[in-house]
Amino acid sequence: MNHCAIVLLAAGMSVRLGSPKQVLVYEGKTLLRHSVEAALGTGMQPVLVVLGANRNLLEKELETIAGIRTVINNGWQEGMASSIRCGVEAALQLEPGLEGLIIMVCDQPFVSTSLLEELFQTQQKTEMPAVASSYRDNPGVPALFHKSFFNELLTLKGDSGARKLLKDQADRVALVPFPKGETDIDTMNDYMELKELKGEGRND
Known about the structure:
This protein is an alpha/beta fold. The protein is 33% helix and 23% strand. Strand 4, helix 2 and strand 5 form a beta-alpha-beta unit.
């Protein structure tokens, strides 16, 4: 597999937080910018950012970043599956010969360029159809999917994201350890705990 895109899911409403998590600031940058820069650092293209709720606010945050494309998910209320479908469809429209893509979210502050590159390198070595990050003894995102998974990604429904697919197809999934992947920002308490961790190094 040579040609791999990246789809960053950023369309959610952040209901549990009460304000858009994508623009929370950590180490001087918004969580959205952290994620976009990690993706761009890999050199993989295209990098697609799926927007929905709070679209105008997030477009302002992204307008100074070159090298990305935004995709608007008008059905974001359905849940994460709709954003995955939007991202995969847009990636295939841009690159019909696409061989794989990485799905990532913007509320995992410790995702790095090196982690995304390791997903790709592991797929190259193992030739497994999917490579997932591993934390809490479970497969999760960021995760890389070979094109053999595209139809399954395009038929996801509701609020089931990539994690359910990875669990259901465990025999087709290689794992990359990413213990800090369990840190994601869903509530204000999560965010306060993250800021208390600020002195710790990243899991690069």
